[in-house]
Write a structure and sequence with these properties.
Helix content is about 70%, strand content about 5%. It is built from 6 helices and 2 strands. This is Protein ABHD16A.
């Protein structure tokens, strides 16, 4: 369960570096390709993040529209609460899908182990 939690909240991996690749081709590494579950989770969370940012910048217009349509009464607030709960649940499901995709990927689990080791014991050997 702890491993799933770390996979859900872990950083996104872009490139994989190994000791052999660093000495042979100058340290370019190889590009990490996420599996389909992780990719689907990324799409869901990115989509909600884009909608949040657009809503944040257009909030004066959205609030004006909601006020004119009388969404600030009791029933309107219930509808807005249901909408926000649905979006929140969709975000949580996207994060869980992304975490499950990372849990079955051996490359990401290896990266996570190296990251945990480096955070626990920060030495010159672990910085490589």
């Amino acid at each position: 369960m702890s491993n799933l939690w770390h996979c859900i909240l872990g950083p996104r991996l872009f490139r994989i570096y190994t000791q052999i690749e660093q000495s042979s081709n100058g340290g370019d590494g190889s590009i990490y390709t996420p599996n389909s579950c992780e990719r689907l989770g990324n799409i869901i969370t990115k989509g909600i993040n884009v909608m949040w940012n657009i809503g944040l910048y257009t909030s004066p217009f959205i609030i004006t529209y909601l006020y004119k349509k009388n969404y600030f009464c009791y029933m309107g607030c219930l509808s807005l609460g249901r909408f926000a709960t649905g979006i929140g649940l969709l975000f949580v499901v996207g994060m869980i899908i992304k975490g499950l995709g990372r849990c079955v990927d051996s490359t990401y689990l290896e990266f996570l182990d190296v990251l945990k080791t480096a955070r626990r014991n920060y030495t010159i050997e672990n910085k490589r």
